[in-house]
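Blinded run. Sample ID left blank on purpose so nobody reads anything into the name before looking at the predicted structure. Input follows.
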Amino acid sequence: MVAYLIRRLWQMIPTLAGVVLLVFLLFKLFGGDPAEILGGLNATAEQVDAIRQQLGLNEPLWVQLWIFVKGILTFDWGKSWATQESVGNLFATRLPATLTVMVPILILDVLLALPFAMWVAYKRGSLTDRSIMVITTVALSISFLVYVIVGQYVFGFQLGWFPVQGWGDSLWTNLVTYVPLPVLLAVMVGLAPQTRLYRSFFLDELGQDYVRTARAKGMTEGTVLFKHVLRNAMIPILTNISLQLPGVFVGSFLIETFFSIPGLGREVLLAVNRSDYPVIQAVTVYLAVLSMSINLITDLLFKLVDPRVVLK
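Blinded prediction complete.
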């Protein structure tokens, strides 16, 4: 496993280099002139040239690329063009709010969808199974924006159970006051696709020969489902969870915007609207590194879940 880990870490270097080069070229070739964006419509040619000189945009392309790479290697992303706030400080101050909302969503999605999907798979072909599949299909066809608007109106304005918007400095206050409504709505939306997906995983395992053998040996259905079926279905389940994890660390643009949560997702959306290139570039590289790291950890977990997996 150590050799595999070293090999995978080594393979991540050219992949990350390709991501960095692609991000640099995309912003350089298609992002417009940063000096003109910073200067604004009323800036003179002298002011634009001064900004270009300050940012090093008059340097050769390879020099600008080295400045960009050096900033990544030293974790010095520069400052936001819009707010003059350090990009590193922006990450440090916005990420906790994002995690406060997104971590409960991921945990509840998994904890609720797994047993529910297993129960539905066990009832395959019954009226209950078909009814739930119809309900989940209908739920999937409704936009998350509709859930947000209706949820805010019903739970916030009509019933007054939760505040519609807001955020505080206390983690406990945020968890019990501002987080429940967005988490509730996000889980309601996420439960439908997760149930359908996990149900298909469990159905694949329930049709295997080892399930019939276990039942023939007199094992209870609970033992068959939770000890054998669930364990053998964990490989695709872990794969699906790993696909969701980057979103936990980036946040939901829609949730953070509509609920006024000062998280990383809302900050990225504001950066896109402002053409705030340093923030967008930092988030892009950060997300690439995060995705590769999560994929590596997931591959290692495969070996722990199923000893038959061979890491090559």
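Unblinding after everyone has recorded impressions. The chain has a mean pLDDT of 81.
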